[in-house]
Design goal:
This protein has a domain at 16-65. Helices cover 0% and strands 46% of the residues. It has strands at residues 16-19, 22-24, 29-32, 36-39, 44-53, 56-65. The strands form two sheets. It has a four-stranded antiparallel sheet with strand order 1-2-3-4, with no helix packed on it. A two-stranded antiparallel sheet has the order 5-6. Strand 3 and strand 4 (36-39) form a beta hairpin. It binds zinc ion.
Length: 76
């Protein structure tokens, strides 16, 4: 599996890989294999999800949205 870091379309710097198929740039752009470049927003949470492909189980990056509740919990 090649470690091919993308070049950010916004600022031209090399992006950093968080998971396979998911890369981030300091300027706020991210890249995901199936959707391409997108702008990160503060409510995005990146996680790995197990997906069964044929007989193999793969870990694929997924984007989740933080649930906004009436009592936001600061879990940092
Ligand atoms: Zn950038």
């Amino acid at each position: 599996m090649g470690n091919s870091n993308r070049i950010c379309i916004n600022c031209g710097r090399k992006m950093k890989q968080q998971f396979i198929g998911l890369q981030h740039c300091n300027c706020g752009m991210s890249w995901k294999k199936d959707i391409g470049f997108f702008q990160r927003t503060p409510d995005m949470v990146f996680a790995l999800q197990r997906v069964t492909v044929g007989k193999k189980v793969k870990l694929l990056p997924v984007i989740r949205r933080k649930q906004s509740t009436c009592n936001p919990v600061d879990d940092e």
